[in-house]
Amino acid sequence: MKAIKASPLSLTLPFLALSPAFMIFTSNLILGEKLDSYGIIGISLTTIGAYLLHVKTTRKGILEPFKAIRRERGSVYMIIVAFIYSITSNLGKMAVLHSSSLFFASTYLPILTLIVLPILLWKRHGKVKQAVPHITLFILIGLSMALATVTHFLAVNIVEVPYAISVKRTSLLFGIMYGAFWFKETNIRERLIGSTIMIIGVVVITLF
C-alpha cells in the first residue's frame, strides 16, 4: 500500500512480477527445491510477461520502471514487497508440509483477520460503516478469497513454489479480460505481447 501511495502504479506494479524470479533462489535456500532448465525458462517468461502487462508502451520505453528506481521510493518499496513475498510463500509451504493444506488455509485467514481487523476499526472506523450496506458483496469476496487461499496451498503442496506462483500470476490475464468486458477498459492490444509471453511460459512449465 505504501508503494502504490508513494508512486504511480505504472512504476510500481511491474515489480510484483519479480517474485517468481526471486523464488528461483529463495525456494532453493529455504526448501531445497531445485528447478530444471525448462522450469527456469518458463518462470523467466512468465515474469517478463507479467512485467510487460503493467508497462505501457510510452515514449519513455519499457525500462522506465527500472530507470525510476533512483527517483521513486514506491518502486523500491515494491521490489522489497516482491522479495518478501518470495520468502513468505516458501514459509507457507513449510507450514503446509508440517500440517496440511486445508488446516493451514483455515487458520491462516482467521489469524490474519484477527490481526488486521482491530487496526482497521481503529484507523478507518468511518470506512467500515460505509461497507455495512454492502455486506453481501463483501461476504462473496471473502468466500472467493478463502477458496483462492485453499487452492493456493493445495497447489504449493503438489509442485515447487516458483512454479505455482508463476502460474498464479496468470490471474493478471483474467484481470485484463474482466476489465475489458465489465469496465470497457482500453489499451488491450498493447498488453497482448505480455499476455502471449506469459501463456508460453505457463505452457513450458506445464509440459516440461
UniProtKB/TrEMBL annotation:
Domain of life of the source: Bacteria
Pfam families xrefs: EamA (PF00892)
The name this protein goes by in its record: Permeases of the drug/metabolite transporter (DMT) superfamily
Natural source organism: Candidatus Jettenia ecosi
Keywords recorded for this protein, A-Z: Membrane, Transmembrane, Transmembrane helix
Transmembrane segments: 12-31, 37-55, 76-96, 102-122, 134-155, 161-183, 190-207
Domain EamA: 2-53, 74-206
Lineage of the species this protein comes from: Bacteria, Pseudomonadati, Planctomycetota, Candidatus Brocadiia, Candidatus Brocadiales
GO cellular component, one term: membrane
